[in-house]
């Protein structure tokens, strides 16, 4: 196995290993928490959500970089070369959850809550992967709040640790929402509240990022995406509240 080395001394396949570890941990977590009679359906739902995230993330990435892929369209199918977009991945995962919830005759929000450990695990491990890979890095720090971080060129600078802030916030949000789940009374409501929290975290992280990105009306496209997911979650909350 050939291993290319990142500027920081980290093998390039370490990024994929971290994402794979996040998926394995999340699916295993679902299996451990699910009642025995629901274990297989919930695990299958998690796997389908991962597939939807992979497909959605790749479609969004190719669409955003269509100027290149229209000349090299065959490469659009070569997912192993890398290139995923988190808004597309989250959208693809949500679509698959909605479809699978109908199959299980359950509210979408309820299945979202069941699969929330998988989303949290993926969030944390992707954030860590971006930290070691030098992607989705934060703005240059002007005080002691920064940490040495790589950019896509391998240059190390004192930066706001946007990726680590996102990872830690996701863990704390899971703990917080899990301890308050009983107060929300319905799992469907809990599921949408959990997604709203993730959208807020994503919005904060996107506002801290400094890597190159497409902007719309002077704002990163991913910031608009995080806001859109937050709005969708609010609609889900209102519907579940009734």
How would you describe the shape?
globular
* Percent of residues in β-strands: under 5%
Write down the overall mean pLDDT. Answer: 88
Oligomer: single chain
- Number of separate helices: 9
Radius of gyration: 18 Å
Residue share in helix: 55-70%
Structural category is mainly alpha
| Unreliable residue stretches | 1-11
What distance lies between the first and last C-alpha atoms, to the nearest angstrom? Answer: 55 Å
- SS elements, strand count: 4
The largest sheet, given as strand count, sense and whether it forms a barrel, is: 2 strands, antiparallel
Tally the structural domains.
Answer: 1
Series of H and E elements? HHHHHHEEHHEEH
User: Could you give the order of strands across the largest sheet?
Assistant: 1-2
């Amino acid at each position: 196995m050939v291993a290319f080395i990142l500027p920081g001394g980290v093998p390039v396949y370490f990024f994929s290993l971290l994402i794979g570890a996040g998926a394995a941990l999340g699916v295993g977590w679902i299996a451990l928490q699910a009642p025995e009679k629901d274990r297989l359906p919930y695990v299958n739902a998690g796997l389908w959500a991962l597939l939807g995230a992979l497909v959605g993330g790749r479609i969004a990435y190719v669409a955003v970089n269509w100027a290149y892929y229209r000349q090299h369209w065959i490469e659009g199918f070569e997912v192993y070369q890398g290139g995923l977009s988190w808004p597309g991945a989250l959208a693809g995962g949500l679509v698959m959850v909605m479809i699978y919830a109908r199959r299980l005759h359950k509210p979408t929000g309820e299945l979202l809550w069941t699969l929330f450990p998988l989303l949290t695990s993926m969030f944390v491990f992707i954030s860590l992967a971006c930290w070691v890979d030098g992607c989705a890095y934060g703005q240059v720090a002007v005080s002691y709040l920064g940490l040495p971080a790589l950019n896509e060129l391998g240059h190390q600078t004192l930066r706001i640790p946007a990726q680590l802030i996102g990872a830690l916030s996701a863990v704390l949000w899971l703990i917080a929402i899990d301890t308050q789940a009983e107060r929300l009374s319905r799992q469907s409501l809990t599921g949408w509240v959990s997604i709203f929290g993730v959208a807020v975290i994503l919005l904060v992280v996107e506002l801290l990022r400094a890597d190159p990105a497409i902007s719309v009306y002077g704002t990163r496209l991913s910031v608009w995406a995080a806001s859109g997911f937050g709005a969708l979650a609010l609609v889900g909350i209102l519907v579940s509240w009734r």
